[in-house]
Amino acid sequence: MSDSEDGMSSEDEKFRFKPTFDLCELPAEVIKRVKALKNLQFANIKHEEEYYHEVHKLDLKYKKLYDENNEKRKQIYLGNYEPTEKECEWKDEGDDIVGEIKKLEIKDKKEGAIKGIPSFWLTVFQNANETLLNGMFEKIDEPIFKHLEDVTISLPEKNTGFIINFHFSPNEFFTNTVLTKEYEMKSDIDPEDPLDFDGPEVSQSKGCKIDWKAGKNTTVKVIKQKVKQKGKGKGGQKFVTKQEKRESFFNFFTPPKIPEDPKTEVSEETQGFITEDIHVGLCIQEKLVPRAVLYFTGEAVEDESEFGDLSDDEEEDDETEEDD
Known about the structure:
The protein is of the alpha+beta class. The chain contains nine helices and six strands; from the N terminus they run ααααααββββββααα. The two termini are 17 Å apart. The model is unreliable at 309-316 and 318-322 (pLDDT under 50).
């Protein structure tokens, strides 16, 4: 116990923080004033609810503009549109534009023209794997992502959630052309607990059925085991096969179910899966799709790493000060 605690007077003791508080301990007139404050709090919460509704209207307005640019982005990396010299003018730090052009001209003569930007989304997901996807993207997923042509976001007119759409070209893994992941959100005040409102929050997520082609499902591992035979029969060795879950990004499309009743108890493991699923979905919507080119180049990853290092340094400084 510190010296300050030893010397604490009974008067000081009354004003120490109380983790729980019983309103019944207060005089009646004070309780009435506290209730007045709660009414003011509820008025602010209603303003906050309206604020988020207005923000969603802005999201819808600007989404149309983003979608136009993202469609052009798609046409460029797929090789369907060749940007003009003017559109290609962008100087990065340390660029030697003349030298790079000469290198490209020599390379083009040797290898022939390259269409678009090969493996654009594959590279995006590889680079964002640790910072945004919690390491969900596996080596076994890479051949499939070579067929990923676009990732788009759908927003409803009301702020009830969003849908992530993964667009694939025909491939040898599944017959779907689009895989979807839908996140439902609660954006209105709960009448049973109005003061608990803290903005829109994800209430449920839904995946889609993937129509895997035979033997191509990356989410399961087929194991063949020998069967122990009784007796000395003349039959050949027998085997049985069983399936085990395998780590793959495509487990993203079979998310854990979030209980409808928030008071329902779930295991720590299940809660971890739910938290990760929501985190990854929001990261794809808010960061990966809007800033795809910066994850392709790795610049977005470097920015996040630098920010993380700064936080670590601050934590170390805090610990040092506490030690002092």
